[in-house]
Amino acid sequence: MKYLNALFTIDGVGNQKISLLLNHFETAQQAWEASAAELVEAGLLEKLANLIVEKRKSIDPAELWQQLKKENIEIITIKDESYPELLKQIPAPPYLLYAKGNLDCLKMPMLSMVGSRKFTHYGQQMTASFARQLAQAGFCIVSGLALGIDAIAHRGALDGDGKTIAVLGSSLDEPNIYPRNNFDLAQEIINNNGLLLSEFPVPTHANVNTFPIRNRIVAGLSYGTLVTEAAEASGSLITANFAIEFNREVFAMPGNISSPQSTGTNNLIKRGAKMATSISDILEEIKFQVEAQPAPRASAIELTEDEAKIMHVLSPEPTHIDRILKLTKLETSTLAGILIILELKGAIKNIGGQNYIKL
User: Assuming Cys at both sites, which of 117, 248, 259, 315 could form a disulfide with 148, CB separation 3.0 to 4.6 Å?
Assistant: First the structure.
């Protein structure tokens, strides 16, 4: 593993080249120590063989390995038992993955949820609701840690006491976690038995070329991909296209036809994506492929009579406090106190503007 990781840090040495080397040499260490002529004999071009010989003079495999250990980053190869089975089925699957967190997530049935960085209130609420319900149904939610819909999907899964995997377009060492605005979310995922995953060795900065590679992994891990809100040119549609290429299910949430943020999802439905208006639309498509185990749920929340009245009128859609007052016929002061208690119990959430949703 130490020498395999060192090889991956050299530009030009990717999955295909590693496969050539390991088919020729008995170990990665032998490949690392081979002469340029031996590397050419293994199938590499002379230019790359010479580059490897030159670059390894300034690379210490043991030092790189210690960096991974310090960051609690593990390496998974395609030959390992923990390597995801669905990912093995895509064309040219990654030979090596870097992982940080709970590897058991890779054994769960996975669904990816993606969307635009810019989102509407509708997209935010529906993404959070779907992610929470799918996580509670026993699926691990996969997304790309991007700003917007990706981050909302990760948080929705965590709110459902479920598991989530963030696939990064950068390496997993703390200085390179990207985007930086979601650094705390990445730590929250790890702290809640989720997983960070990447195809990139330490250190790799995120750039325009790394994101499509990340999207390919997101789609490859999953039985299906749900696009909840996406503009016409959203990068999330790259993930959907990969899912189509891999013969996986593609789902799209319909949106307002006058909203630019729904153009991409509505077009996906036109192209044949399954329209998802509830999680049952997703579950019925994949029920013959996988049996998910429902996530462990906290014991049922005990409610007073007045609390039950409030819960009855709330839903995942925002409800203003004036409407809650009208439907429950509670006194304003009484309602305000009960809403605070229900938030503390984790049953509802104040989303601002005196609007509440049921969790």
Answer: 117
3-state secondary structure 45-66: CHHHHHHHHHHHHHCCHHHHHH
The three-state secondary structure class of 143 is strand
Asked if residue 179 lies in contact with residue 147, where contact means CB atoms within 8 angstroms, the answer is yes
Residue 214: closest CA among 239, 233, 192: 239
pLDDT in tens, 119-157: 999 999 999 999 999 999 999 999 999 999 999 999 999
Supply the pTM of this predicted model: 0.81
**Are 227 and 251 a contacting pair, CB within 8 Å?**
yes
Residue 301: which of 343, 350, 332, 351 has the closest Cα?
343
Would you say 103 and 73 are in contact if contact means Cβ atoms under 8 Å apart? no
**What count of other Cβ atoms lies within 10 Å of the Cβ of residue 73?**
20
